[in-house]
Amino acid sequence: MKNSQSIVDSTIRTAVFSTLDIANIEGFQKINDRQYGVIVTDINGNKRYARVGVIVAQEREDMTAEELMAAEVADYNGKQAKKAEAAAKRAEKAAKDKAAREAKEKEKGE
Questions:
Q1: Phi, psi for residue 90 in degrees, rounded to 5
Q2: What digits encode the pLDDT tens for the residues 49-93?
Q3: Whole-model pTM?
Q4: Domain of 34, in residue numbers
């Protein structure tokens, strides 16, 4: 007999939370079957509510769990690389624009 998807997912989440031993970390409370929560103070001194949750990916026929995880990691790394490239281009443009403004101001002053 095959177990239902909700029972399988619940068992996986329980195993992950157990491995993390999150129930025994001071301040964490079980919110529901999928999440634990904690109150933290942010860098501005404000109290914030943060949740730690476990999302169980659906089984896929077109790829293994390992392949899905590798694909998601590669996708994330690709997006981060594009963000870094765009930030570098913005910084380069800002530096050029600043130099041009300073040159223009210097010309006005002469």
A1: -65, -45
A2: 999 999 999 999 999 999 999 999 999 999 999 999 999 999 999
A3: 0.67
A4: 1-56
